[in-house]
Amino acid sequence: MREMDVKSIYTNRFAGQMNFRKAMWHVLCREYFQKHILDDNFVVEIGAGYCEFINSIRAAKKIAVDINPDTSKYAGSDVQVIQASSTDLKGISSDSVDRVFASNCFEHLSRPDILTTLAEIRRIIKTGGKMITLQPNFRYCYKDYYMFFDHISALDHRSMEEALVVKGFTVQTIIPRFLPYTSQGSLPKSLLLLRLYLRLPMLWKIFGGQMLIIATK
Prior knowledge:
Elements: H1 3-13, H2 18-31, E1 42-46, H3 52-56, E2 61-66, H4 71-74, E3 79-83, E4 97-103, H5 111-124, E5 125-136, H6 138-141, H7 157-166, E6 170-175, H8 191-199, H9 201-207, E7 210-216
Parallel strand pairs: 1-2, 1-4, 2-3, 4-5
Antiparallel strand pairs: 5-7, 6-7
Helix pairs in contact: 2-8
C-alpha cells in the first residue's frame, strides 16, 4: 500500500480517537506490556503508526518503523523513526535489538511479505531476544475482520505460530484471546474498565478478539 494511502486511511479511521488511544496504550504498557520489557532494553516497534506503544513503554533505546509519513509527527523525543517497509529493516543492525513489538501489523501484509518481515525481525533481534505480537485473531473476529479496507491476510493463532516457527522462532506464549478486536467496537471506552479487564483473564475468553504471542530467537 502506498504511503499516502496509509496516511489517508488512518487519518480518517482514528479521527477523534487520538486522545483516548494515547491514554489506552499508556494503561496497556504500564499494566501489562512493561513486564516483558526491561528499562535497559533496545526496543523496536514495527508498524508503529501514531507511536502510542513506543511512546508509552520504558526502554533505553526506542525505534518506530512505519511507512506512514505521519509517524514522525507523533513520536516522542526519545524515539527514532525509520520510515520504511517492515520487509526492509536495513536501517537496524543485525543482532542488536532486545525486543520487537508489532501490534495489528501482519493482517496488512501479504503472506510473502509476512515471512520476509519475520525474517528481518529475526535478523535484528539478539539471541534470546523476544518478539511480542498483538494481532487480530481471525478465528474469533471473522465477522468483522474485513470491516477495515486495508486488511489483507486472515491469520489466527495457529497460522501465526506456524509462520514464526518456519522463520526460526521459538514460541513461548500464546494467548488466543487477549484484547477485544477493536477499540471502535461497542464496548465502552473506559480506562477504569480496561484496567479491570487486564486483571481478569476470565473476561479475555469472552471479549478477546486479538491474540498475544511471544516468541524468542
